[in-house]
Known about the structure:
heterotrimer; B: mainly alpha; 10% strand; C: mainly alpha; 4 helices; elongated
Amino acid sequence: MTAVVLVCAVLLAAAAILAVVRAERGPSMLDRTVALDVLTTTLVAFVGLEAAWSRRTDTIPVLVALSLVGFVGSVTIARFASREPPGEGRVRTREEIARDEAAREEAVRAAGGLDGTGPADGVDGGRG
Amino acid sequence: MSLHARRRRAAVQWPTLGWLTVVWVLLWGEVSVGNVLAGLLVALAVSVATPLPPIAAGGRVRPVACARLVGRFAVDVVVASFQVGVQAFRPRPPQSAVIGVRLRSSSDLYLTLTAELCSLVPGSVVVEAHRLTGTLYLHVLDVDGPEGIEAARRRVLEQEERVLRAFASDAQLAAAGLGAPRPSAPVTPEVHA
Amino acid sequence: MGVVSWSAVADVLAALCLLGGALLAFAAGVGVVRFPDLLARMHSATKPQVLGLVLVLIGLALRLRSGPALWMLVLVAVFQMLTSPVAAHMVGRAGYRTGKVRQELLVVDELTADQDAARRAAGLDADGDPHGAHRS
Lengths: 128, 193, 136
């Protein structure tokens, strides 16, 4: 039994890591939601596995609660995200942030030079 | 939204009450008088505090067809789960499709049940449901060309037929064009009213 | 003797169920990372998970074998089956409406076609849709 439980635990841990990878990478909010759904279910499976290993019943209410409310987050995010324009919700890469910062500084400098009439609006509108 | 018959009556819905009581008793884990009574009270409080529009079912439950629905569903879930699982490891990305399936019955209840069951069986998920025309739009994972699309469509319609045969009344079955009883079912001529 | 062998059988079955559940969860994780678009990922995420969870629960029930906790496990399975299609449908619909389906990966897309037809019938042009379900 112990060997089986160990193999299962490794598989579940791998699944959880993969879900986290997708949550980090996921291009949109909804992808992250799906990934977190997988993470939640993996967590439920983990709790169940541990309960099966040690034959305990006191963690089963955790399973009940998680299975009941696990979908609330997905539904909520889906409600909000249904108006999300494509490209939003994407975490910018380090280079993009650096580029935006440089552009903003450039804009500020240009605005100073042009006496306050600079094109500040057009530059940092990327994260509007 | 205007289609909803909102709070037509504050009538007690006995099936809801029973289901909530059963959930309560299962949560406590033992059938005792106190548990059942407390469950009834909680169920009553819940259904009074958050009333739902009544479900216009008007059908009847056929045990054999019900068992067929559940059994076929279990087989479908197991087979399709492993298919999707294997699909995750294939090098080729899946060829998906979004198909629209016009269901034969016009009842919300059967539309919902069919959509729920189709969503639970892996490989298909309902992305949009059009109530007025009774159309389900499903995203199907990995179809193989036109015949795969037709097969997916047929699966949805078969699912609906099983749902209808399990829960719909004879009149609803006939309205959906499924009036002919199965050969195994005893034919009872309705002479008297 | 009989009791011992029965419990051994139950343990073996429980181990098999747990393994199956863990494998399905792992496959779901792989699918979530590897599938190319949102809806395909959702297939992998929500559905093998249900069976995987049910298998883990059966394994747990076979290990526990008695007690009121078994009924709670039944409830867990029922709740999961009731709620996961809701989440899948909401996420799928939101994803479709915001154009997160990669059209080039679809073999057919009857929903966009039907929406276009309905829009034409209503006298709107294709740009009348505020959140275009199809990207050009």
